[in-house]
Design goal:
By secondary structure, the chain is α/β, with parallel strands linked by helices. It has two domains: about 120 residues, Sandwich (Immunoglobulin-like), CATH 2.60.40; about 240 residues, Alpha/Beta hydrolase fold, catalytic domain (Rossmann fold), CATH 3.40.50. It contains seven helices and 16 strands. The strands form three sheets. It has an eight-stranded mixed beta sheet, with helices on both faces. A hairpin with a 4-residue loop joins strand 5 and strand 6. The longest helix is centred in the C-terminal third of the chain and has 21 residues. It is globular, with a radius of gyration of 22 Å.
Length: about 375
């Protein structure tokens, strides 16, 4: 079967674009949907599919732009010698442009034009990567580019049986890894909501932080895996249990099979920020025997969700003795009182206290719910693992 991939302005294929959104009921482990990290009013954009095939060579392009006056689509697949596809604005603010019968199998660039401005597809999996093209104004020494041996950050594609499609992750390996023979431990490092697997290597400065720590002899050699924790779901809440299934069923086995790593709990750590912190905590509840280290950055269950709180309290009390026995290190960090997860985390920690689970709490870097906090968190985390 011929497949067609549209690239929203960047020269990388958007993985899983041919698959529709998953509902919370479709996750493989049957876990209840979790509350989204940020509460907001739903819009048609939440479940919008921006590119849909509607016939042989025919596609509908959609973008949510309720205040726009004029919208069009541009790209390689447009027949510029013929009539331009017309955009129709629906009552819910979604513009639809039908490209009829002219698209042949292949790879095409495209973009929307909104009121005369070129706009990348905000629903493309690549869209979040554009926000990582930031001006670096930090003077922090641990983030700096230095004349030190540099590791490699590789983009890897794996097949997710959980989602039934190919997905992408990034892997950092230390300088000299290619010639080394020693099996290394692994840190699985997850981004936050709305980002993807390119966030830690770019705005998170993971490569610079790890290279500098290695050069200074402050961390153990390790492999750092940065997966894509974002999975589009119908209700925005179901991505956490689906990602956990993908992590344990597909990602960890992929790394064990393709890298020279120690495939045992003592050599595995899991850390995540914000929504990634929820994914880290939920993984702990079910797979606490598979990782010796858990770091939860700027995250917490919602204090205004009494049913969820009661459920989590029950689970924590059931697994508490086993967690204390098997987990070597559990750390909760926050960016101080201005961190939007601050109150939720503080309230949530009482559940861990009531269950008698041992942990460390840290808000030494009070920069709020920002990458400034989380880069410092990675700097601290990497120095403490596997020692």
């Amino acid at each position: 079967m011929n497949k067609l991939f549209f690239i929203g302005g960047l020269a990388t294929a958007a993985l899983c674009m041919n698959f529709g959104p998953l509902s919370a009921q479709e996750n493989n482990n049957g876990a209840p949907a979790l509350p989204a990290m940020f509460r907001r009013q739903p819009t048609p954009n939440d479940t919008l599919q921006s590119v849909r095939k509607v016939g042989e060579g025919s596609y509908i392009f959609s973008i949510y732009a309720p205040k726009a006056m004029n919208v069009s689509v541009s790209g390689d697949m447009i027949n510029w010698a013929g009539p331009r596809p017309k955009a129709v604005k629906e009552d819910n603010g979604v513009w639809k442009i039908r490209v009829e019968g002219i698209v042949t199998p292949g790879v095409f660039r495209y973009n929307f034009v909104v009121d005369g401005n070129k706009v990348l597809d905000p629903k493309s999996p690549l869209a979040a990567e554009t926000s990582n093209l930031l001006l670096n104004v930090s003077d922090e020494d641990f983030l700096a580019e230095k004349n030190v041996p540099h590791g490699a950050i590789a983009q890897r594609i794996y097949y997710s049986r959980t989602l039934g499609c190919e997905r992408r992750l990034h892997v950092w390996t230390p300088a000299g890894y290619e010639k080394g023979k020693d099996k290394l431990p692994v840190l699985y490092l997850i981004h936050g909501g709305g980002d993807n697997d390119l966030s830690w290597p770019t705005v998170g400065r993971a490569g610079q932080i790890l290279d500098n720590l290695m050069a200074e002899g402050k961390m153990k050699p390790m492999v750092v895996v940065m997966p894509n924790g974002t999975i589009e779901t119908e209700d925005l809440n179901g991505e956490v249990p689906i990602f956990i299934e993908d992590l344990m069923t597909d990602i960890v086995p992929f790394i064990d099979a393709n890298y020279n790593v120690e495939a045992k709990p003592q050599a595995r750590a899991l850390a995540g920020l914000s929504m990634g912190g929820l994914e880290t905590m939920e993984t702990l509840l079910k797979y606490y025997e598979d990782f010796d280290y858990f770091w939860v950055l700027s995250s917490g269950w919602f204090a205004n969700q009494p049913e969820i709180y009661a459920q989590k309290a029950k689970v924590l009390k059931e697994i508490g003795p086993a967690v204390n026995k098997t987990v070597k290190q559990l750390v909760f960090t926050q960016g101080g009182p201005t961190d939007i997860a601050y109150n939720n985390c503080k309230a949530m920690l009482k559940l861990w206290d009531d269950a008698g689970i041992k942990y460390t709490y840290d808000e030494a870097h009070p920069f709020g719910h920002t990458w400034q906090t989380w880069t410092w968190n990675l700097y601290d985390l990497a120095q403490q693992l596997f020692k």
